[in-house]
Amino acid sequence: MDSLRFFLVRRRVLFLLLLVASAVGTSRAREAQPLPPVATAVAGKAGSSSRRAPERHGLSLDFYAKSCPAVDQIVANVTAARFRDFPAAGPGVLRLLHHDCFVEGCDASILIAPTADVAGGAAASPPKAGGPFYPVKKGRKDSKVSLAGKVRGSLPRANSTVDELLRVFAAKGLDAGDLVALSGAHTVGFAHCVHVLGRIYDFRGTRRPDPLMDARLVKALRMSCPSSGGSSRVVVPFDVSTPFQFDHAYYANLQARLGLLASDQALFLDARTRPIVEELAADKARFFQAFVASMDRMGSIRIKKGKKGEVRKVCSQHLL
């Protein structure tokens, strides 16, 4: 039985990472190159009998202590191997978890292939990029549906204002500190050119670049992202200084007007979030601490309980 559980968990992790890698990893050698250098300062079902109290489906670090005690090591081993082969898969899994939790809660509804706990565990496994490791609470149930219509309005946009960002995060029970800390995930990974074309060519209909973006970054981005006719698959790094290193350079970039997305740069421009950006830019250990705490809070958004969720045994289909 233990060997079967090992196989099932390992298969789920591999399937998840293969899907992420196929989306963002296969073109990395040709299209995900760093930009030219830019100087910077930088489970239980509720009981139906009246004679017993209903069980609480809570999250805990030892949820699988009896049924699958090696789950953390299984996930860590598989993800570490996959990240070595596809470095871009690490940021991809972080993004996947964020999108999953913000759309109908942390329930694996954003992608049917994995389970909610596997997605959370994979995101916490360090991709050899220098980021913090943290233990993930487990016990999430998986969604029975996956609807694209649920996404709209649940996720921040590349040009969201701070007001819009705060509203989206507040709707999930998160505050400004969580917003800034979780945005630090953009210290690694890439964005498609379509998300920056407006900033570098026609900011707010002016036919000029965003005046708040450093001119050197504008020039570098234009080399990779032509105004028209470019490949829709080309990507550029969120962090122009250390795109493959999980550190706090993202915040120093914002201070130097080197934020890639308008929603990133806005965090330094707004008086409500600037002090948090400055605090995390000054102290990597503080950023790691804040990031782990916010990831833990995000991982608890709208956990499914009782009959509202399921535990997928075959990851590619629902239990109906």
UniProtKB/TrEMBL annotation:
Co-factor note (free text): Binds 1 heme b (iron(II)-protoporphyrin IX) group per subunit. Binds 2 calcium ions per subunit.
Places the protein is found: Secreted
Single GO biological process annotation from the record: hydrogen peroxide catabolic process
Enzyme Commission code(s) on record: 1.11.1.7
InterPro entries: Haem_peroxidase, Haem_peroxidase_sf, Peroxidase_pln, Peroxidases_heam-ligand_BS, Secretory_peroxidase
Transmembrane segments: none
Keyword rRNA-binding: no
Residue runs in coiled coils: none
Site (Transition state stabilizer): 95
Main location: secreted
Cystine pairings recorded for this chain: 101-106, 193-225
Sites where the protein binds substrate: 156
Keywords, comma-separated and alphabetical: Calcium, Disulfide bond, Heme, Hydrogen peroxide, Iron, Metal-binding, Oxidoreductase, Peroxidase, Pyrrolidone carboxylic acid, Secreted, Signal
Name of the protein: Peroxidase
